[in-house]
TrEMBL record:
Gene3D superfamilies, sorted: Carbon-nitrogen hydrolase
Protein name: CN hydrolase domain-containing protein
Molecular function, one GO term: hydrolase activity, acting on carbon-nitrogen (but not peptide) bonds, in linear amides
Record lineage: Eukaryota, Metazoa, Ecdysozoa, Arthropoda, Hexapoda
CDD domains associated with the record: nit (cd07572)
Keyword vocabulary terms for this entry: Hydrolase
Organism this protein belongs to: Cardiocondyla obscurior
Residues in CN hydrolase domain copies: 32-281
Length: 307
């Protein structure tokens, strides 16, 4: 991939509030701001990179300290063969460009599911990476639950295991400007054992960057995100893909941030864009204190989720 900065610099112009008004807004905020991002990836890696750069710049303009991007933010290929051919190592040009974006904007980036090349022929990893504002890759989580659907009734076939290797490790949360952040990806949200394990490891914020199918998103997206927030008394941040990526695939969208009480505090519209919210760790601690569920778990009767 060629360096994209000249294209990005020429193509992006902020269209909303002035820097001055953003600073006035931030001056009223008592807590750090997070930006949850929504985009429509295609097989055009350079175009997708431009969108990431644009949204990161907008997030910084609105004074967010961290921006969250969805699964497949690097690209969304049309075939298994294309996906494998387009995957890069974490030392490749795409991740290098993400690091440059983080430094340029002095912002942390959660990039929730890049296609990581592996040594296994014909297989890759689906990897959620976290980059700090100095351009350092501080965490990389490989998706442990793979989404396999082969529904003969609906004709929908999405078999992630055809080309993705399962991750083998649950990573401890990382300290960030908004709190202790735990990494997961999309389908992981259907497994509460994982989120409870992450809570036990000290998570204050759970992340589910996703490319949810339209049908399952309409039925389950918000319900599950709010459930994970409520049962773990954590913030949940879920960046999302949206719209038609190609002739075979449409994503639900509705990127959102949910607070530890289960309230959706911000949400993206249908198109590419960002939504901003404060992350108030004092609220989280208050929720946990006022409803001390962890003290009431009957681990004498059922196994504790081990850290």
């Amino acid at each position: 991939m060629k360096r994209a900065w000249p294209v990005i610099a020429q193509s992006f112009t902020l269209k909303r509030h002035s820097v001055q008004s953003a600073k006035r807004y931030a001056g009223t905020m008592a807590h750090p701001l997070a930006a949850v991002c929504q985009m429509r990836s295609t097989a055009d890696k350079l175009k997708n990179l431009e969108i990431v750069a644009q949204l990161a710049a907008e997030a910084k303009h609105k004074l967010a300290t961290i921006a969250f991007f969805p699964e497949a933010c690097d690209f969304l290929g049309e075939s298994k063969k294309d996906i494998i051919a387009m995957a890069e190592p974490l030392t490749g040009q795409t991740v290098t460009s993400y690091k440059e974006i983080a430094v340029k904007n002095d912002i942390w980036l959660s990039l929730g599911g890049v296609h990581e090349a592996s040594d296994n022929v014909g297989k890759i990893y689906n990897t959620h990476i976290l980059i700090n504002n100095e351009g350092q890759l501080v965490s990389a989580y490989r998706k442990i639950h793979l989404f396999d659907m082969d529904n003969k009734d609906t004709g929908v076939r999405l078999m992630e295991s055809d080309y993705v290797l399962k991750g083998t490790e649950i990573l401890p949360p990382t300290s960030t400007p908004i709190g202790r952040l735990a990494l997961s990806i999309c389908y992981d949200m259907r497994f509460p054992e994982l989120s409870l394990t992450l809570r036990n490891m000290g998570a204050q914020i759970l992340t589910y960057p996703s490319a949810f199918t339209y049908q399952t998103g309409a039925a389950h997206w918000e319900v599950m995100l709010r459930a994970r927030a409520i049962e773990n008394q954590c913030y949940v941040i879920a960046a999302a893909q949206t719209g038609a990526h190609n002739t075979k695939r449409v994503s639900w969208g509705h990127a959102m941030i949910v607070d530890p009480w289960g309230t959706v505090i911000t949400q993206c519209a249908e198109k590419t864009g960002i939504a901003i919210a404060e992350i108030d760790i004092a609220l989280l601690e208050k929720v946990r204190k006022n409803m001390p569920c962890e003290e009431h778990r009957r681990t004498d009767l059922y196994p504790r989720m081990e850290c």
